[in-house]
Design a protein that fits this description.
The complex is a heterodimer of chains A (about 475) and B (about 575).
Chain A (H helix, E strand, L loop, with lengths): L1 H7 L2 H8 L3 H11 L3 H14 L4 H13 L3 H14 L4 H14 L4 H11 L4 H13 L3 H10 L8 H13 L3 H14 L4 H13 L3 H13 L4 H13 L3 H14 L4 H13 L3 H14 L4 H13 L3 H14 L4 H6 L2 H5 L3 H14 L4 H13 L7 H16 L4 H13 L3 H14 L4 H13 L6 H24 E2 L6 E2 L1
Antiparallel strand pairs in A: 1-2
Chain B lengths: L4 H13 L30 E5 L1 H4 L24 E4 L8 E4 L15 E5 L5 E3 L1 H4 L6 E8 L8 E8 L2 E5 L5 E3 L13 E9 L8 E6 L18 E2 L2 E2 L13 E5 L5 E3 L1 H4 L9 E7 L8 E6 L5 E5 L5 E3 L20 E4 L8 E4 L8 E5 L5 E3 L14 E7 L8 E6 L6 H4 L10 E5 L5 E3 L6 H4 L4 E7 L8 E6 L5 E7 L4 E8 L11 E6 L2 E6 L14 E6 L3 E7 L5 E8 L2 E6 L3 E3 L7
Parallel strand pairs in B: 31-37
Antiparallel strand pairs in B: 1-30, 2-3, 3-4, 4-5, 6-7, 7-8, 7-10, 8-9, 10-11, 11-14, 12-13, 14-15, 16-17, 17-18, 18-19, 20-21, 21-22, 22-23, 24-25, 25-26, 26-27, 28-29, 29-30, 31-34, 32-33, 32-35, 35-36, 37-38
Classes of the chains: A mainly alpha (about 475), B mainly beta (about 575).
Chain lengths: ~475, ~575
C-alpha cells in the first residue's frame, strides 16, 4: 500500500500542469481536498465538452480510485491511455489498481512504464510482486534486484524476494535476504526457523545450528526440534540429530512426519530394524497413516523381508489409493525379487484407473527398460511412450528423464539422449548417473567441448558420494542411546 | 500422503538400478546390485567338460598367500596371478605360478614356481633349477621377450620390489631387475598389474606397471579401526578405500636391456586417483598403436589411448569403460579380452566385487565401448567376488564363452555369516551366438563347480589337444588345472606369431579369423585375466568350419592376409615371411 502512495503522491500537481482549462483547476482542487464526489461532477461536465481529453479521463480515474470504485477507475485510466498511451499518471494509476488486486494484467502496464522510465524502482517493485504472485520467479527476480531498496523496510517484500531466490536454488543469496528479515525482528521464532531451513538447503548446517540455537535454549517446540535434528544430521552429528528427533516425537507423538524423518535417518545409516521399531510406535498411534506403512515397507525391502514390505505397501495403498507412490511401491517388492512380470502387472493394473499418473507411467517405463527391450519392439515403444508421457505430465520428474535418456541412447537417438540426460541432471545435480549418461551421450554426438568440464564435475560428485557413504557407514543407530563406531 | 524426498528417491532408483540396496560397505566398491532374472535354460548341450587334474599333474604345492582364517591386511587378500609360458620353446605350455608369503614369516613352500611340461599330462617343478625361487608378496606376471633373443622372459610385480627375470635360453633365468634399471628406491611400492607393450612401435617391448595402493604395515589401519575396515558389520582388512592410491609407471625399453621410466612425459602420471590392478594392452581403436586398459578397484578404470608420439591420453570415462552403466565406480579386478559378438573388434569383460555384476563392454571398433552386461545376460550373476576371467571359446563352436574364477577376500566372515563363504565356485557363461550368454551351473563339470578362493587364472592348451584348459591360483591351496575334455569335437585353429620388425613375441598383434561368415578378433597380450598371462598361441574355435581366412595386424604396422588356412592345427607365422614350421609342436 505504501508503494501506492509513492505512485499517487505527485498526481494533482502533474495534472494541473498539464490541463490549461480553468475547470481543471477546480477539479484538481477537489481532488486535493479528497472531495471526490465534487470532482466527479466537475469531470463529467468537462468530459461532455472535451471527451478526447486524456487528462480529464485520468482525473476521473483518480477520483473513482479515491471513491473506492476501482473498476470505474481502471476503465477511466484505460480510456485515458487509449487517448494518450504514454500518459504516465494514467499508467501508474492503472498499474496500482492491478497491483492492489493482484492482477497480472498490471504487468504489461508496468513494463510500459519501465520503458518510459527504466529507473522507476517502484514499478520494478510492483512487477516483482506481481510476477511473484503469478509464481514466475525467473521473471520476478531481476525486478526484485532493481527494487531492492524499496523493500528495505518491508519484510513481506523481502520474504517474497527471498522465496524467489530459494525457488531458483540461489540459497546463499536467499540466506542473505532472510538474514535481513531476521535482523529486523530477531525475536520472531518463525523468521529464525525459516532462515535455518534455508541455510540447510544451502548445505550450511553449522550456520543453521547457530541460527536455531536461541530457540533450543528455551523450551523448544516440535517444529524447532525437527529442524535441529535435520541440521545436526547434515552436520554429521547423528547422535544429536536422533536426540532432538526423539524429543520432538515425545512432544508431538502424533506427528507422522517425525516418524518419517526418523525412518529416513535409520535408512541412511542402515539401522533398519531400529527404524522399523520407531515407525511401529507411530503406527500404534496413527494406524491410518498411509505414509508410515510406506516408510516401514521401504525399510522391510532393504531387509529383504518382502512379504512384510508387500503387506505394508498394500496397506498404504488401501489407506491412500490416490497416492502415486503407494501405488508404485506395490510393484517394488516384485522388482526386488526380479519378478518383473508381476511388478509390471501391478503397475499396469493401477494405470488402468489412473492412466495419467506420471509416477506410475515412469515406473512402467523403468520396469520395461530394465529388461533391455530391443528398439522398435512393443516393450520398447511402450516404455518410450510411458516415459515421454511421464515427463510431459511432470517435467520435474528427474528419474523419468533418466529412463527416457536411456531409451534414446539404446535407440541411438543421441541428441534426444543428451537433452533428457541434461534434464535428469538438472533435476538432481548430485545425480552421478545422469551426469555420466550426459557425458556418454555428448560423446556419441561428437559434442566434445563440454565434456572436460562435466568430467571434472563427475569426479567431484564421486568424491562427495564416497565421503557421504563413509559418513553414513560410520554411525549405526541402536535401541536406546546411539552408538558411534 | 507425505513422503520424504529420500524415500521417493530410494523408490525411484530402486526400479532402475536397484540401488535401494546399494551399499558401498567397507572399503571396496560394490553397487549392491540385484541379479538380473535368469531366462529359461536354452536346453542346448555344452560340450566342454572341465576336470581338475592338478594333483595328478604334479601341481601339489600350495600357493601361500597371507593368513588362512583371517587377513589382517589387504596385502594378504588380493592374491596373485599365473602364466602359461613355453620357457624352453619345446612347443608345450609350461606353468609359472606366483606366490605370496605370511605376516609371521615365509613357510618353506612360499615361492614362485615354474613347472616344466613333461608332455604327458604331468609337470615337474623346476623352480630352483631355473633360478626362479623368490619369496615375497607377488601379485602380477607378464610374459614377453623383452630382449628379442627368442626366449620369453618374465616380469613379476610385488608389494615391494618388482622383478624382471631374463630367460637365458638354457632352462634358467636370471634376475636382471637392477641391470635393467627397474629398481625402485624409497618406500616399498605395490606393483600390481603389468604388461609388456611396444607403445612406441620400435620393436622393443616396453613395460607398463599399475600400482595398487601406497601401503605400509606401520601405518595401515587394522580390521575394525575405520569405517572402511568393516564388511557386513564384521571387522575385516581395510581398503582399498581409505588408503592412498598408487602411481602407475611406464618404462621405455632402451633396446639395450635397460628401461627408462617415462611415466611423466608419456602422460601416465596424470592418473593419480586410482587403485590399479590388471593391465591389458591392445589396439582398441584399431589405429595400429597399442592402447592400455587398467582395471581399477573402487575407482574409475583407466583407458590410456595412444597418441602415436610417445604419449597417452586417459579417456576411460568418455569411452565407456571406466564406470558402470549407471556411472558408478566398481571394484575392477580381472579383465577378459576377446570378440564375443564376432564383429571383428576387441571387447572387454571386467570382474568385480560381490553384490555387483561383472561388466561386459562392446567395442565399436573405434575404441568406444557400450556396456552390454544386462543385454548379454551376464547380469544374472552377482553372488561372488570375481577375479581372473577370459573371453575364450571353450567348446570350439566358434562363439567365445566367458569363464571367471571367484573367492572372497574375507575368510573370517563365513564363521559369522555362512551365506558369505570364503571359497566359491567358478562361473561359466556359454555364448549362445546371438549376443547373449547362458550361465551354466552344472554343465561344465566338477572343475567348474568346485569351491576355492581363487584369484588369477590363465587360459591355454597345456596338453596340445586343441581345446582351452584353465590354470587357476587358489589361495593357500594348490592350484587347479582344469583339463578341458570336449564331448563333441569341433574344428579349431591355433596361431603362433613371431615378430621380425615387431617385437619377437609379437605382443600387440591383432588377428582376425574369418570363418563361416563370422569374424573373430583376438589380441596377443602379455597380461589379462587377473594378473595372469595366457597361452600366447591364439586359439580360434571354428565350429563346423574346416578353415579360416586370417588377417594379421602386426605391431610394426604390417598387415598380412592368409586365406584358407586349414583348421585343426597350429600354424606359426613369421612376420613378413608367412607360415613356418612349428617349433616343437606335436600331437
Amino acid at each position: 500500500m505504501l508503494v501506492l502512495a509513492i505512485a499517487m503522491g505527485a498526481l494533482p500537481t502533474t495534472i494541473s500542469a498539464q490541463a490549461p482549462d480553468r475547470r481543471v483547476s477546480s477539479i484538481t482542487a477537489a481532488l486535493r481536498d479528497e472531495n471526490y464526489e465534487l470532482a466527479l461532477q466537475l469531470i463529467r461536465a468537462a468530459l461532455a465538452d472535451s471527451p478526447a481529453s486524456s487528462e480529464l479521463w485520468t482525473m476521473q480515474g483518480v477520483a473513482f480510485k479515491g471513491s473506492n470504485r476501482p473498476k470505474e477507475a481502471l476503465a477511466s485510466f484505460r480510456k485515458a491511455l487509449k487517448l494518450s498511451p504514454n500518459n504516465m499518471i494514467a499508467l501508474r494509476g492503472a498499474a496500482q489498481i492491478a497491483v492492489d488486486q493482484g492482477d497480472a494484467a498490471g504487468i504489461p502496464i508496468l513494463e510500459h512504464i519501465l520503458k518510459l522510465d527504466p529507473n522507476d524502482r517502484t514499478s520494478h517493485a510492483m512487477v516483482a510482486v506481481l510476477e511473484y504472485q503469478q509464481g514466475d520467479c525467473t521473471a520476478a527476480l531481476p525486478h526484485f534486484e532493481k527494487a531492492a531498496s524499496v523493500f528495505e523496510q518491508r519484510p513481506a517484500g523481502l520474504r517474497a524476494y527471498a522465496a524467489c531466490l530459494v525457488k531458483q536454488k540461489r540459497f546463499d543469496d536467499a540466506i542473505a535476504v532472510f538474514s535481513r528479515t531476521l535482523e529486523a525482528d530477531p525475536e520472531n521464532a518463525q523468521e529464525r526457523r525459516v532462515l535455518a531451513a534455508v541455510q540447510l538447503m544451502g548445505q550450511h548446517p553449522e550456520a543453521a545450528i547457530t541460527t536455531i540455537s536461541p530457540l533450543l535454549s528455551a523450551t523448544p517446540d516440535p517444529q524447532t526440534l525437527e529442524l535441529a535434528s535435520q541440521a545436526y544430521e547434515q552436520a554429521h552429528e547423528t547422535e544429536k540429530a536422533v536426540d532432538y528427533l526423539r524429543q520432538a516425537i515425545l512432544l508431538n507423538p502424533n506427528d507422522v512426519n517425525l516418524y518419517l524423518e526418523f525412518a529416513a535417518i535409520a535408512e541412511k545409516h542402515q539401522s533398519l530394524q531400529v527404524g522399523i521399531n520407531v515407525v511401529n510406535d507411530g503406527i500404534n498411534l496413527q494406524p491410518e497413516a498411509a505414509a508410515l506403512y510406506f516408510a516401514r515397507g521401504m525399510l522391510y525391502v532393504q531387509l529383504s523381508e518382502y512379504d512384510k514390505a508387500q503387506s505394508d505397501f498394500d496397506r498404504a495403498y488401501q489407506l491412500d489409493p490416490k497416492s502415486s507412490l503407494s501405488a508404485a511401491a506395490q510393484g517394488l517388492t516384485a522388482v526386488q525379487q526380479n519378478d518383473f512380470t508381476k511388478a509390471l502387472a501391478g503397475i499396469q493394473e493401477k494405470l488402468r484407473t489412473r492412466p495419467n499418473d506420471p509416477i506410475l507411467l515412469y515406473m512402467q517405463a523403468d520396469i520395461l527398460t530394465e529388461q533391455d527391450p530391443k528398439p522398435g519392439s512393443t516393450e520398447f515403444n511402450t516404455a518410450l511412450n510411458s516415459a515421454r508421457r511421464a515427463v510431459a505430465l511432470k517435467p520435474s520428474l528427474g528419474p523419468a528423464h533418466a529412463v527416457l535418456a536411456k531409451l534414446y541412447m539404446s535407440a541411438e537417438h543421441y541428441p534426444e539422449a543428451v537433452r533428457e540426460s541434461r534434464k535428469a541432471f538438472q533435476a538432481d545435480p548430485a545425480d552421478q548417473t545422469a551426469l555420466y549418461h550426459l557425458v556418454r551421450a555428448l560423446r556419441k554426438t561428437d559434442q566434445k567441448g563440454e565434456i572436460p568440464g562435466l568430467l571434472k564435475q563427475l569426479a567431484v560428485l564421486r568424491q562427495q558420494a564416497n565421503s557421504k557413504k563413509r559418513e553414513e557407514n560410520r554411525v549405526k543407530l541402536v535401541e536406546g542411546e546411539p552408538e558411534v563406531r | 500422503m507425505t513422503i520424504t524426498r529420500r524415500s521417493f528417491v530410494a523408490l525411484s532408483l530402486c526400479a532402475s538400478a536397484q540401488s535401494l540396496l546399494a551399499q558401498q560397505e567397507g572399503g571396496i566398491a560394490s553397487r549392491g546390485v540385484k541379479a538380473q532374472a535368469k531366462p529359461a535354460p536354452s536346453g542346448r548341450p555344452f560340450n566342454a567338460q572341465f576336470t581338475d587334474v592338478a594333483k595328478d599333474a604334479g601341481l601339489h604345492a600350495p600357493v601361500i598367500y597371507g593368513g588362512i582364517d583371517q587377513k589382517k591386511y589387504i596385502v594378504e587378500a588380493n592374491g596373485c596371478g599365473c602364466a602359461f609360458i613355453d620357457y624352453d620353446n619345446d612347443g608345450w605350455m609350461d606353468i609359472f605360478l606366483l606366490s605370496g608369503t605370511r605376516l609371521e614369516g615365509a613357510p618353506p613352500e612360499a615361492t614362485n614356481r615354474l613347472y616344466k611340461n613333461n608332455r604327458d599330462g604331468t609337470f615337474t617343478d623346476v623352480t630352483e633349477k631355473a633360478g626362479l625361487k623368490a619369496v615375497g608378496w607377488a601379485n602380477g606376471v607378464c610374459v614377453g621377450d623383452y630382449d628379442n633373443d627368442g626366449f620369453d622372459d618374465i616380469f613379476c610385480t610385488y608389494f615391494g620390489q618388482n622383478r624382471l627375470f631374463k630367460n637365458n635360453g638354457n632352462g634358467t633365468f636370471m634376475d636382471v631387475t637392477k641391470e635393467a634399471g627397474l629398481l625402485q628406491p624409497g618406500p616399498a611400492r605395490w606393483g600390481a598389474g603389468c604388461a609388456f607393450v611396444d607403445y612406441n612401435r620400435d620393436g622393443h617391448l616396453d613395460l607398463f606397471v599399475s600400482n595398487y595402493i601406497r601401503f605400509s604395515f606401520e601405518h595401515a589401519p587394522v580390521p575394525g579401526e575405520k569405517s572402511t575396515c568393516n564388511w557386513k558389520g564384521i571387522p575385516v582388512n581395510c581398503g582399498p578405500r581409505g588408503l592412498p592410491t598408487g602411481r602407475h609407471i611406464l618404462y621405455r625399453n632402451n633396446g639395450d636391456g635397460t628401461f627408462t621410466d617415462v611415466s611423466k612425459q608419456a602422460g601416465i602420471d596424470v592418473a593419480i586417483e586410482s587403485y590399479g590392478m590388471t593391465v591389458v594392452a591392445a589396439d582398441f581403436d584399431e589405429d595400429g598403436w597399442p592402447d592400455i586398459f587398467v582395471a581399477c578397484d573402487s575407482t574409475p578404470s583407466l583407458l590410456f589411448m595412444n597418441n602415436h608420439d610417445g604419449t597417452f591420453r586417459e579417456e576411460g570415462v568418455t569411452r565407456g569403460v571406466a564406470l558402470s552403466d549407471d556411472g558408478m565406480e566398481q571394484a575392477g579386478m580381472g579383465v577378459g579380452i576377446g570378440d564375443y559378438n564376432l564383429d571383428g573388434h576387441l571387447d572387454l569383460f571386467k570382474t568385480h566385487f560381490i553384490d555387483d555384476t561383472s561388466g561386459f563392454y562392446r567395442n565399436d571398433g573405434k575404441g568406444n565401448f557400450d556396456e552390454v552386461t544386462r543385454a548379454a545376460r551376464i547380469g544374472v550373476e552377482t553372488r561372488f567376488t570375481s577375479w581372473g576371467a577370459g573371453i575364450v571359446d571353450l567348446d570350439n563352436d566358434g562363439n567365445p564363452d566367458v569363464l571367471f574364477v571367484t573367492g572372497s577376500v574375507y575368510p573370517e566372515v563365513e564363521k559369522k555369516l555362512p551365506q558369505y563363504p570364503y571359497k566359491t565356485r567358478r562361473v561359466l557363461f556359454r555364448n549362445l551366438g546371438n549376443g547373449t550368454f547362458e550361465e551354466l551351473e552344472s554343465q561344465g563339470g566338477e572343475g567348474i563347480s568346485a569351491a576355492h578362493s581363487s584369484r588369477g587364472c590363465a587360459f591355454g592348451d597345456f596338453d596340445n589337444d586343441g581345446d582351452m584348459d584353465v590354470l587357476i591360483v587358489n589361495m593357500n591351496e594348490p592350484p587347479s588345472l582344469l583339463r578341458n575334455d570336449l564331448k563333441v569335437k569341433q574344428n579349431w585353429l591355433k596361431v603362433k606369431l613371431e615378430g621380425v620388425k615387431s617385437n619377437r613375441s609379437a605382443i600387440g598383434a591383432r588377428v582376425i579369423a574369418r570363418f563361416a561368415g563370422k569374424s573373430q578378433a583376438q589380441a596377443l597380450v602379455s597380461q589379462s585375466s587377473y594378473y595372469s598371462c595366457n597361452d600366447p598361441r591364439l586359439h580360434f574355435g571354428l565350429g563346423p568350419a574346416s578353415e579360416a581366412d586370417l588377417e594379421i595386424y602386426w605391431p610394426s604396422g604390417l598387415h598380412e592376409s592368409y586365406p584358407k588356412v586349414a583348421g585343426n592345427r597350429l600354424v606359426t607365422i613369421l612376420e613378413g615371411k608367412g607360415l613356418v614350421p612349428n617349433r616343437g609342436w606335436n600331437r
